[in-house]
From TrEMBL:
The keyword Transferase is assigned to this record: yes
Record protein name field: Phosphate acetyltransferase
Enzyme class: transferase
Pathway membership, UniProt: Metabolic intermediate biosynthesis; acetyl-CoA biosynthesis; acetyl-CoA from acetate: step 2/2
Residue intervals of the Phosphate acetyl/butaryl transferase domain: 135-451
Pfam families: PTA_PTB (PF01515)
Amino acid sequence: MRSLYLNCAENLVKVQEHLSKKFSKVAVFEIKIGEKEQELLQSGREKEFFIDIINKFEAVKNENDFVIVVGCEGFGVVGRFELNLKIAKNLNTPVYSCNNKEALKSLVPNSKLIISDDIDEIINAKQEIITPYSFENILTNRAKLANKTIVLPESNDDRILKASDALLKKDIVKLIILGDDAVIKSRAKELGLNLDKARIINPENNEYTDKIASEIFERRKSKGMSEEQAAKLAKDRTYFGTMLIEIGEAHAMVSGASTTTAETIRPALQLIKTKPGVSIVSGLFFMSLDEEVLLYADCAITPNPDPEALASIAVSTADSAKAFGWEPKVALLSYSTGESGTGPDVDAVKEAARILKEKAPELKFAAPIQYDAAADISVGAKKMPGNEVAGNANVFVFPSLNVGNICYKAVQRSANALAIGPVLQGLRKPVNDLSRGCLVEDIINTVLISAIQAGE
């Protein structure tokens, strides 16, 4: 590790001396709780507090070989130790403790947070904690770096306008909002929003209509589409937004707040189509738990994928994991592990595993495998000994939409996980669907993911 966390400064000099022998540039990053920080924590704006600390810490970490984080002193809102441990998790920084190691461990049972009284153990340890706050921060920073333009067709929805305002304030992405300029600006003014940096295009009246109508006709005439039908679709906000991506005016589209999944996906399937070698479009959810991010698929699109489709979903989801910086470890889920069970459903997963091995021989996967054996190291070692994915999976491929959708919602509600998606994978260019019950924050996260996808 390139950092460690001290709960207080009493051991700082000793730790600095030890680390200076091993690293040329050792910095100290002190956590301070002033009036501003107290106000954020007490007013329910904890997210702002943690993201501010994460950004400041990463800046120091990038300029030094090792960072010693000195924790804050006693604080009444959360409790001294609990707050410091939560900060350590969000910074993915192991805790160095000389005299209360066991007491600290008891406060975070079953946690991946390393708490040790051995500095060298911390230096050599591999800790990979990604909290919901750190994950959202990763998305923000990567999307900003990608510098892409995203189309938002649903200007009639206040949530879209509010999300646009938040994104534009931070200069994270460029936005094209579809709709009538006067209507959008009037509603934005009523809501106290600033959309001046957005580009507003009216699908009913614009410079691209003829070109888009012509493109739609050329792509769909073999399916019996007439020029008149193409001209009508060119004024449909979803078809128009999809074609803005195809003609290079934008890089991705996010829709679905007031549009059905079918209405969002149909134009993409007809006009953008799938990537070469990909047979199916699938829906991925990023499940951001307390200390890790897992990828679940397919939880949104294909009801009963056959073995070929399951293998394709596994490849697409593994590629998505790579795009966001993870080494994919794929679990093809079933109600039995290895050779312990039989039946048509298990046989389908086994056949998917055979196809997957041919499609992506370098991919690390386990199949068929039960969820507990895929997620828990001790269970995985018992049920599938010797398999490096068992107990360590971060990509979970479900055997059906029924199972996947139920599971992601159960985890989201029962474990209080942040579920971001569905993210459509397999398309040549990103088009992503929102739930009609989405929150403003959901829209923001989906836009960020779309921008990152477009940058790959």
